[in-house]
Design a protein that fits this description.
Blueprint: H1 2-24, H2 29-55, H3 60-70, H4 79-104, E1 113-118, E2 121-128, H5 131-142, E3 149-152, E4 155-156
Length: 157
């Protein structure tokens, strides 16, 4: 029993001495420099993250206000760029579809009617042989998938 108590006291003394010794040692310059770089990098990352959250309106106050107002929080990633690219592709497809319909119709001249599409809004310009053909051109354009509005400046020739 005396040996166990003596061994325990000797072990505790050794641990105490090791802690005292290593705490009293000045840190190496390389370790200090690494620690400083890590701390600076962490502070910079925190600042960038905080800025991003504020830009997206994801601050606690912003989230609370939006939840109270709408009951949900929604953010769209890269909405402007993706919408612009999708709109340009969709607009080109809509214009092509309408021109194909005009080519297929024997009463309409695809060469006399210009089709411009912007964000689903179609503008028809040029000439048609009758008012009925203007109506038919507008109906064909309006029945095309993705069209939200048809504006006609077509004139009877």
């Amino acid at each position: 029993m005396k040996r166990i108590v003596f061994g325990f006291l000797l072990g505790a003394l050794a641990v105490g001495w090791a802690v005292w010794y290593f705490r009293g040692q000045p840190p190496e310059p390389a370790l200090t420099e690494a620690r400083n770089r890590i701390v600076a990098g962490a502070a910079q990352a925190e600042s960038a993250a905080r800025s991003s959250l504020e830009a997206l309106g994801l601050t606690p106050a912003g989230i609370k206000e939006e939840l109270a107002r709408t009951g949900r929080v929604i953010r769209n990633k890269s909405a402007e760029v993706s919408h612009a690219l999708a709109d340009a592709t969709a607009d080109a497809r809509i214009t092509t579809d309408i021109k194909a319909k005009f080519l297929a119709d024997k009463d309409l001249s695809a060469l006399s009617i210009s089709v411009n599409t912007t964000a689903g809004r179609v503008t028809l310009s040029g000439t048609a042989s009758t008012l009925e053909n203007i109506s038919k051109a507008m109906a064909l354009a309006y029945d095309t998938e993705g069209v939200t509005q048809v504006i006609s400046t077509l004139q009877v020739k």
